[in-house]
């Protein structure tokens, strides 16, 4: 099982390189198999199709982000505002580390829009999940008296808007740094103070 998971990760790394250089639409299972040095039949042992492979890449990234968030939220030495600030910084750092994947995700969403298809369920589900985590943290902070009473939906929109802005800067504008976004996140969290 461990060897299977390790091989699956290796395949995903090769596939991501191909998605980045050729775009989602032009990637085929054969191209991925060739890059991995395996047959297409062997590739089917690990993934049903390129969509599943692509979705697994997103799930893997978001799983890593969520694990970081859980660790921060469990840190008893931090108040809610500090946790929220750290969560935003971790998310922005992960986005910066994975800006290549962000470009592929945007390409994929563009591909879906040309097909008149809705954004993929996995992308949407992960977005909603992250927004829920942020909203929950805001509510916890308000209840603990560490965040002033605010409209949770608006505060959540602002915080998530910072994340979207970081994605836009990295994937669309191709900026190499998101330091301004980190400063904006810190300012926003500071303004939530009680």
Structure write-up:
This protein has 194 residues and is mostly helical. Helix content is 78%, strand content 0%. It has nine helices and no strands.
- What is the count of β-strands? 0
Overall domain count: 2
The SSE order reads: HHHHHHHHH
Q: Over all CA atoms, what is the radius of gyration?
A: 19 Å
Helical content stands at: over 70%
Shape: elongated
DSSP strand content: under 5%
Provide the structure class: mainly alpha
Number of helices: 9
Briefly say what this structure is.
The protein has helices spanning about 1-20, 30-35, 40-45, 50-75, 80-95, 100-115, 120-145, 150-170, 180-190. About 80% of the residues lie in helices and about 0% in strands.
Topology record:
Elements: H1 2-22, H2 29-36, H3 40-46, H4 50-73, H5 80-97, H6 99-114, H7 121-143, H8 152-172, H9 179-191
Helix pairs in contact: 1-2, 4-5, 4-7, 5-7, 5-8, 5-9, 6-8, 7-8, 8-9
List the main descriptive attributes of the protein structure presented here:
elongated, 9 helices, 194 residues, Arc Repressor Mutant, subunit A, mainly alpha, single chain
């Amino acid at each position: 099982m461990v060897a299977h998971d390790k091989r699956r990760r290796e395949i995903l790394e090769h596939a991501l390189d191909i998605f980045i250089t050729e775009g989602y639409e032009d990637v085929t299972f054969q191209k991925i198999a060739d890059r991995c040095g395996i047959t297409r039949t062997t590739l089917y042992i690990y993934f049903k199709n390129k969509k599943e492979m692509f979705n697994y890449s997103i799930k893997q990234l978001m799983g890593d982000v969520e694990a970081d968030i859980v660790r921060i939220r469990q840190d008893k030495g931090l108040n809610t505002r500090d946790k929220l600030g750290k969560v935003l910084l971790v998310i922005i750092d992960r986005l910066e580390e994975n800006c290549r994947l962000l470009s592929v995700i945007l390409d994929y969403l563009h591909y879906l829009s040309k097909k008149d298809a809705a954004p993929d369920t996995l992308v949407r589900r992960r977005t909603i999940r992250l927004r829920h985590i942020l909203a929950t943290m805001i509510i916890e902070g308000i209840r603990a008296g560490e965040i002033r009473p605010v409209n949770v939906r608006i505060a959540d929109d602002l915080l998530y808007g910072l994340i979207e802005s970081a994605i836009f800067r990295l994937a669309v504008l191709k900026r190499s740094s998101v330091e301004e976004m980190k400063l904006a996140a810190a300012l926003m969290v500071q303004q939530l103070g009680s």
